[in-house]
Amino acid sequence: MEKVDQSKGKVMCILQARMGSRRLPGKVLLRVQGVPLLEREVKRIKRAKTVDKIVIATTTNKEDDAIENLAKRIGVDCFRGSEKDVLDRYYQCALLYPGFSSIVRVTGDCPLIDPLVIDQVISLFRRRHLDYASNIQKETFPDGMDIEVFTRKALAEAAIAARLPSEKEHVTLYMRRKRKFKKANLAAEYDFSHIRLTVDQKEDFEVIKFLIERSRLQDGYRKYISLLIKHPEIMKKNMRIMRNEGLKKSLKKDRVMARNNVKT
Amino acid sequence: MVLGTVQLGLKYGINNSHGQPSREEALGILERAYEQGIRMFDTAFSYGDAEEIIGEFITRRKLNGQVQIISKLEPNCVSEGSENVLSIVENGLRTSLRRIGREYIDGYLLHTSSYIFREEIVNALHQCKIKGLVKNIGVSIYEETEALAAVRSSLIDYIQIPYSVFDQRLNQTEFFQLAKANGKKVFARTAFLQGLIFMTDKEIPDSLSGAKEYLKEFDDIICRYGLSRLEAALAFSASQPGVDYIVFGVDTIEQLNETMSVAASLGEHFDCVAALRDRFLNIEKNIIFPSLWKK
């Protein structure tokens, strides 16, 4: 029998989501089989055994009232914070839930997120007493299975110390960059990193829709992969879209900021 | 039924008096096969022009997506201890895809049966599957041990086996039961031993003269049931419930027509199949393995 370690503390999942999207506006509320993608994602996260609470963190923008309404309807807490400084949004949100010592970060564009993988990342995080664990430091999982777990302490330190626009927009960039945080990565059995199970563009949505229509809520990501293997024409629909388009954009902003600093 | 295409790309087969068909003849054979309802074609990198001919056929007839193609990795292309196994396998597959003119194919098999024991090669095939280059992966085997390794591998989808009246080795193993239990698709080839089964004593070369007595025994059995060698051989392969597809080859349109018409009206022929079953168990491998025949 495994002994329950009380010091592990409770785990909350902060799910960041917003209506704004340059490439596919309102993507998180697109519906498949009548269910908005964000609702589906919440339902899947709820299946994770190690997640004790889910909070949707959206922005204070008017358009994101729709997200708050969805949260209300499905009985999930909703926090509203900064649009651009997502790190601060996470920090402010976490402050409202002091009882949770570990925080899982998941983004609203991953409707097929796998609860079993969430449990595996959390289990790795706990077993090795880490500050940060994820399955994205080396990308082997499909895009759209991105899961990160970190301590409340690491989040607080990042929120106070991070300066660069990219570090504010991408919540964990600072933690991942600093050596002082103890980190580990969960790798998939095979390299699935070219497979996209995220929603960022129209083609992505077509793929997601295809997969949802042919699977059950409780299916894991391997089910999606085997469906795509049987339908390479679907797999190829969105394979050429670049991973982490958003991150590349904000790294560009850093360079702009660096240049401006030199001038002044 | 699956049409094998080695004869279309190479001069092949012991009973082949026609030589390799011209490109137009080859395309004619594919066209006729399609008309007769064949939707799966078996080819390989090493079958000369066969992959390109199939590609040309599909493009000309705009059959993309309506026929399935199985090809095979070049034999012996991964040397022992090779470090870049994935790139060798993937490049092999991409070469075949380019020749066939498709972005992906239905099946890709190892043509070197012993590769089933090389985990890194099977993994590389699996990686190609994950990349969307092929839907099913597998191996073409010769020996029982290879067949059993393939049927137990969790990564393998397709297994091509030698199976005929004269090669019933796998009936003596648990291969067919395991294949069903593990959801593998089984393709039986050499139902006609490359045409040897149709040869008269006079036509059989000296190197295979040992086959004559078996053919005589075969004739003695089937004449009691009034079946031709073609009917009996086909009925035998088709009667094994563990066989999902029969892969057969033809040199000419006439052979194709004959085979297909026999296949279409093939009765169960239970009695004849039962009489053939468990016979010919100790035939020398140099008769049942066309690869061992002197060229």
UniProtKB/TrEMBL annotation, chain A:
Q: What is this protein called?
A: Acylneuraminate cytidylyltransferase
Q: Which organism is it from?
A: Candidatus Wildermuthbacteria bacterium RIFCSPLOWO2_01_FULL_48_16
Q: Which Gene3D superfamilies match?
A: Spore Coat Polysaccharide Biosynthesis Protein SpsA, Chain A
Q: Name one GO cellular component term.
A: cytosol
Q: Which InterPro entries match?
A: Cytidylyl_trans (IPR003329), Nucleotide-diphossugar_trans (IPR029044)
**Pfam families noted in UniProt:** CTP_transf_3 (PF02348)
